[in-house]
Amino acid sequence: MNVLVINCGSSSLKYQLINMQNEEVLGKGLVERIGIEGSKLTHEAAGKKIVIEDPMKDHKDALKHVLSALVDKDHGAVADMSEISAVGHRVVHGGEKFASSVVITPEVMDAIKECSDLAPLHNPANIMGIDACKEILPNVPHVAVFDTAFHQTMPKDSYLYGLPYELYEKHGIRKYGFHGTSHKYVSDRAAAILGKDIKDLKIITCHLGNGASIAAVEFGKSVDTSMGLTPLEGSIMGTRCGDIDPAIVKFIMDKENLNAAQVDSLLNKQSGILGMSCISSDFRDVENAANEGNELAQVALSAFAKRVKKYIGSYMAEMGGVDAIVFTAGLGENSISMREDICEGLDGLGIVIDKEKNNVRGKETVVSTDDSKVKILVIPTNEELVIARDTAELAK
Question: Which residues are noted in the entry as Mg(2+)-binding (predicted)?
Answer without folding.
Answer: 7, 383
